[in-house]
Automatic annotation (TrEMBL), chain A:
It comes from mine drainage metagenome. Residues 140-202 form the SUF system FeS cluster assembly SufBD N-terminal domain. Belongs to the iron-sulfur cluster assembly SufBD family. This is FeS cluster assembly protein SufB. One of its GO terms (biological process) is iron-sulfur cluster assembly. Residues 211-453 form the SUF system FeS cluster assembly SufBD core domain. The gene is sufB_2. InterPro entries: Fe-S_cluster_assembly_SufBD (IPR055346), SUF_FeS_clus_asmbl_SufB (IPR010231), SUF_FeS_clus_asmbl_SufBD_core (IPR000825), SUF_FeS_clus_asmbl_SufBD_sf (IPR037284), SufBD_N (IPR045595). NCBIfam families: PRK11814.1, sufB.
Automatic annotation (TrEMBL), chain B:
This is Putative ATP-dependent transporter SufC. It comes from mine drainage metagenome. The keyword ATP-binding applies. The keyword Transcription regulation does not apply. The lineage of its organism: unclassified sequences, metagenomes, ecological metagenomes. Keywords: ATP-binding, Nucleotide-binding. Pfam families: ABC_tran.
Automatic annotation (TrEMBL), chain C:
Pfam families: SUFBD_core, SufBD_N. Residues 184-417 form the SUF system FeS cluster assembly SufBD core domain. Residues 21-180 form the SUF system FeS cluster assembly SufBD N-terminal domain. This is FeS cluster assembly protein SufD. Transmembrane segments: none annotated. PANTHER family: PROTEIN ABCI7, CHLOROPLASTIC. It comes from mine drainage metagenome. InterPro entries: Fe-S_cluster_assembly_SufBD (IPR055346), SUF_FeS_clus_asmbl_SufBD_core (IPR000825), SUF_FeS_clus_asmbl_SufBD_sf (IPR037284), SUF_FeS_clus_asmbl_SufD (IPR011542), SufBD_N (IPR045595). One of its GO terms (biological process) is iron-sulfur cluster assembly.
Amino acid sequence: MSTATKQLDELIGREYQHGFYSPLQTDSVPRGLSEDTIRLISAKKNEPEFMLDWRLKAYQHWLTMAEPRWANLHHPPIDYQDIFYYSAPKSEKDGPHSLTDIDPELLRTYEKLGIPLKEQEVLAGVAVDAVFDSVSVATTFKEKLAELGIIFCPFSEAVHKHPDLIQQYLGTVVPYTDNFYASLNSATFSDGSFCYIPPDVRCPMELSTYFRINAKNTGQFERTLIIADENAYVSYLEGCTAPMRDENQLHAAVVELIALEGARIKYATVQNWYPGDKQGRGGIYNFVTKRGDCRGNNSHISWTQVETGSAITWKYPSVILRGDNAIGEFYSVALTNYFQQADTGTKMIHIGRNTKSTVLSKGISAGHGQNSYRGLIKVLPSAENARNYTQCDSLLLGDKCGAHTFPYIEVKNPSAKVEHEASTSRIGEDQLFYCTQRGISTEDAVSMIVSGFCKAVFQELPMEFAVEAQKLLGVSLEGSTG
Amino acid sequence: MLTINNLHVAIDGKEILRGLNLNVNAGEVHAIMGPNGSGKSTLAQVLAGREGYQITAGSAYYMEQDLLAMTTEQRARDGVFLAFQYPVEIPGVSIALFLKTALNTIRKQRGLPELDAIDFLNLMRNKMQQLDMDESFLSRAVNDGFSGGEKKRNEILQMTVLEPKLLILDETDSGLDIDALKLVADSVNSMRNPNRAIILVTHYQRLLDYIVPDLVHVLLQGRIIKSGGAALARELEKHGYGWVEAESTSRQVA
Amino acid sequence: MSTQLESWRNMALEFVPHALAGHDVPRVLAARQSAFTRFAEHGFPTRREEEWKYTDVSAIGRRTSLAPDNIPPDPSFEAKLLAWSIASEGMHLMVFVNGHYDHTLSMTDHLPHDIRLTSLAYLLDDTSHFSEKFFDKKFIAHDFFDKKHEHTTFSALNNAFATDGAVLYLAPDMVLDVPIYLLFIASGRGAAIYPRNIIIAGENSRAKIIEHYIGTLDVHNFTNAMTQINIAAGAEIEHCKLLQEGPAATHIAGIHAEQATGSLFISHAFTLGGHLCRNDITTQLNGTNSHCELNGLYLMNERQHVDHHTRIDHIAPESSSQEHYRGVLDGSAHGVFNGKVVVHPRAVKTNAHQVNHNLLLSRQAEVDTKPQLEIFADDVQCTHGVTVGQLDEDSLFYLRSRGIDADLARSVLTYGFANDIIERVSVPYLRTRIEHLVLDRLPQGDQVKDLL
């Protein structure tokens, strides 16, 4: 084995060093799922009748369904009766009391990512002072948004304050019958975000900082609903650019986006949940259903994702291009290291005339990671002059990982033009040698080449986010953090 | 032969030609010069019948027929030939098949018998020799993998084989070295005769050193703003398009 | 869901092997019976299975005849004429009618001595024929009925019901310049036809094999064919399958190759006729430095359905594969392409390249394509590309600007599109034949034919 290969092996084989803190016991509804659990969840949240009915219908449907098996993923069976479906927000006294209680490795990662101290506390789950900035910051944001008529609040709050909007839009993109995990989510969802942008309003800020601060303890069954009314614009940044403290094994979130005529929604995700250890023990199972509906003419939805965490990622952010001239985009970087498995991609369903979609997927496999791109481009007979361009590239590091592509292309209209390109490459020893010969460390060289590989996707992220995502990628690749 | 009156053409609502007038008689060679974006190529494409252009006003008559009402292939069969600036590549279709198909449809229109394989091959050999082209050219797919020069030569070959009445050469000189340029010029010159008209669309004066035009027109912002004899091209070369532009603006102001 | 059994389960098909070639050789009979059991356990595939997602074969299970006939009917005059014309081209010809060898129409007299070309039924009926120097006694048990050849449930059915087919053995270093032409004629009404071909190419041997399926009658014949090809080190096999079934016929087939070091396998699949056609074409690159080229052209119209599933397994290092598939779909035709390339962990320095281009010529036509890469080794170069679209507007304009009318221009361009695949065939006779078959399907194709 050449020196360069050896170095590469060492690099990607290094132990995960985030050192997650041990799980904390919380006040919960008893383990397991039944109609009673759902009634209890709904009652705890003091939900209106319609919400409970919807949950129960979802539960009844879920009982008739089986876990999907088509994905290129392997995991031991999940016991759905061994899960807590409701955790009350963790009480302050249970958490670590200050940053000194936190694993220094985790803090080092935060530092590397350049996250401010106060935010580090929030992210690490430190019980912070009630008058901490976040609350006031959040309030300031909220007031500013309210002036414009923008509604942005926790889902549970929206159920009470805006039941009409919830009833009008909830489940219209991802019905509770959609798939096994979406049904489970519909029955049990804990909380999430609700966002409504009124007609002709351009949301003046990236809805990110707010979310980051409020994202703690949202639970494992998140539900997000975003509606951009006619000619509205919103850019939404989900999740957290730092490793989120989270010890839930199973995540089954649902995100629904609705863009009415002329509206535009940009939705970006950076996900770095616990990927499990070097032997593939532990880690988050992330089964997410994300779908956008370009309901009106000239609407536009873009998904951008950087997926570096989780032991298993099952996720296909999709766009239904219903309106004429609608545009759907999907930009993705998925990295798998250790024993991580990712089966991710997108669906673009062309229904309206002159609809356009672009798919750009970059998969990076290292260690024993298995990375699959699974995509569907479907052009229905009504979609006159539909256009799609798909590019999916894979980069392999080391010889124990795998890269797979499963692109499905279904065309039922002759005026469609669909193009798909894919390539697979590796970081060559000659490339590494060239870099090291110029004095660049192997680590930096790998990180440099990977950044170049992902550049086209990072360009789709808001500036500040892109910088963090790039750093995160470096950190994850370091195997992780050197 | 060709009379264009007040022609207005737009692409996607953007006006490219704004009231162009041009009169070309049989036996004449006209050069249309202008900077990039002046509408030269649009004019060439519209005359050949390219779809996607909106003709918002004006008319064009070719041999007493309403040119703009004719389909692309009718125009070609009646003798309109466009040498493309960027000839398209057609993988899988050999030049022999392509040209034989074109030639025989045009011959049919002219009331001539179709050529059989042997006559066609003889004709091609003859024409290709004149253009210094290898016979193997015939079996290659149309423009597929051709160099820039080969593509242009292929256009000229087609021109000499199809014997059109109105030749429109769209920037045929671009990308050619001096030897190839002379060869093209020789072919075009050999086609000059009292029954044929030629329109040279070009950016540079270079080609006009070898094909001396009867008339030179300067096209700017969709209109012909100046016309003159062959000397005008040399003036342009010396002073650039800015010179005519300034002159025309000052005239407008006056 | 209906619990009614598919009709084939009521047909006592398990007794069919008793009437087929080799029925009095216990080993053969037993192998056929166990293959049938494996088939029956699974039954015909449904669209719920990933590999059959876009192709519905449920109608096969509802056929009233699935057992092969024992005495084939007389082929049509046109079919005989075709056989004679091929023989007169000097090619080595074996003709099969409804899956039974017809020696009167065949012409194998001029074969060199080191080449064995035999009817499979002849070998199966009497295993003593295996004692001849070219065939090993274990051949039947190990190579023919082996489960490893059951790539689909149809392969198991073929193992159980195969009537006859060609068995070709090329001795090492044997180079055969004249192609071997296997002509399969579907005749009669509603017949079930099970051909099975076996090609064994010794080291450094070389041959070209044409497998041509023709059915002229508008009847509901069902062909379930399988060809297995074993290519030893340094050998080169060019295989061309021409599918020209009748308009109501169903054709499900497999071509499965295994390649040793330094070998070359070229496969062409031309699917030009049939109501429901499916080809599963696979190759395993078991030896280093082996190379394969899979080419295909499907040209479908009306309510025809065509499905090509290819799979290339790069198992040894430094192997390469090239795949070019093109489809032209008109009328309400439905085209399916699934190209899988698997690069196994040991297969470093693999070079795999795959493209699938589709032309949709009508509003009702449909194409579903899935180029699939599965890569388990890092030092590889793999690409794939897919396009679906119409004829290029710029090309159309170019032709029209030269006086060619729009319809003829479309036919010329469609021909050019198809020609990319046709010209990859090295046998001139076949190239011309396919060219003409393609042009017969295009408007004013005769005109293009005259011009060629």
